[in-house]
Amino acid sequence: MNKFARTRRAFWGDVRFLIGIVLVVLSIGGVWAVVTASGPTTPVLQATRTIVRGEALVSGDFRVVDVGLGTIADRYLAPQDLRPGLVASRTIASGELMAGSSTEDADDSRTTTIVVESSTGIPADVEAGTVVELWHAPPLDDDEGTLDAPRILVADATVASVITTDAMLAAGGTSVEVVIDRAEVAEVLAAITGGSVLSIVPVGSTP
After folding, report:
1. 43-63+74-104: which CATH number, 3.30.420.40, 3.40.50.2300, 3.90.1210.10, 3.30.70.100?
2. Of 26, 30, 70, 143, which is least packed with CB atoms within 10 Å of its CB?
């Protein structure tokens, strides 16, 4: 009776040992499958700051990172793809990988920058890359200096930089460099020279 019990324990001990070996083999195989599936990495450009639409792309604004992109690696810019004359075709957020579709030649760019002075202050979180509306209140045709109701002048502009000085802060205004389409430049300049009061309004806000 005791001999049978010892034989049974030995049998189950062997089974547990074999199961343990199988689990170890499966674990190693799973790790190998993950490593194999990840494939080789590719060096691509990653923005180190926010780059606004129309801004020139220069090496100082990027770092090189190795990323496993697989079959879509050719959609992103490698270090050797960066050349003079390339500009951003949209705003690139800091930390974003630089996609080739987000670039264009400077000669083909339809945007430019213009500095406008906002008659009102702007929120502290408005910074380079923020999408804003440009509103204006044109003067009425009278001698009293009254203004017409505010209206949208540019519905989709991008902040390139915010310029503030002590004098501007005291007056409650702020100068903002914005990126706009070239087709809108004439209308913006006409509003400025015509005496309109301009305001920078973040998208989603009310002037």
Report:
1. 3.90.1210.10
2. 143
